[in-house]
Design a protein that fits this description.
The chain is 89% helix and 0% strand. It has three helices and no strands. It has one domain. The N and C termini lie far apart (67 Å).
């Protein structure tokens, strides 16, 4: 349990997924240079940014759809 908490703390400190933290720490434990773990870390960061931007875009599209429906409803009321 203590190991899991330590890995989770490492992941939180470096803003990584738990699995990426485990992989990175394992590579470091095997004596690999941190540069060898770098591509996986970069992929993790890119994935997080992409997910954040995707959710932001989805939220904006939702607001646009709601606003369009509201405008359509109001124009229907004015035409009646």
């Amino acid at each position: 349990m203590e190991t899991i908490e330590a890995v989770q703390a490492y992941a939180d400190r470096h803003k990584l997924y738990f699995s990426v933290a485990v992989e990175t720490l394992a590579l470091m434990g095997l004596g690999k240079q941190s540069a060898e773990a770098f591509p996986r870390l970069v992929a993790n960061m890119v994935e997080r940014v992409f997910n954040k931007q995707f959710h932001r875009f989805a939220k904006l599209l939702t607001y646009a759809a709601i606003a369009a429906e509201e405008a359509n409803y109001k124009s229907d009321l004015l035409l009646l």
